[in-house]
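Q: What residues go here?
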């Protein structure tokens, strides 16, 4: 899914975001994958945003509290998607 659409969907309903879409959004916003351990994906951001640790639910959706964490970091650091 398009990162802009994923962001809008995440803001509207954090419990209905596919994990793969959340990963695409995180990468589009500049986070860089640092490590994968099992299902856990760890990302860092060059702008100093905190490290993200995300993992999918069994139904392949993102965990709602992790979606909210990503949204909080987007707002806190003023991250935007490139056009």
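A:
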């Amino acid at each position: 899914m398009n990162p802009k659409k994923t962001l809008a969907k995440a803001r509207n309903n954090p419990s209905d975001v596919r994990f793969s879409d959340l990963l695409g959004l995180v990468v589009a916003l500049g986070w860089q994958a640092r490590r994968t351990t099992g299902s856990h994906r760890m990302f860092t951001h060059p702008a100093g945003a905190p490290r993200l640790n995300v993992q999918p639910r069994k139904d392949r959706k993102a965990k709602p509290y992790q979606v909210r964490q990503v949204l909080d970091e987007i707002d806190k650091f003023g991250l935007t998607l490139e056009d």
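A: Context that may help when evaluating the design: The two ends are 15 Å apart (CA to CA). Helices lie at 3-12, 19-28, 64-77.
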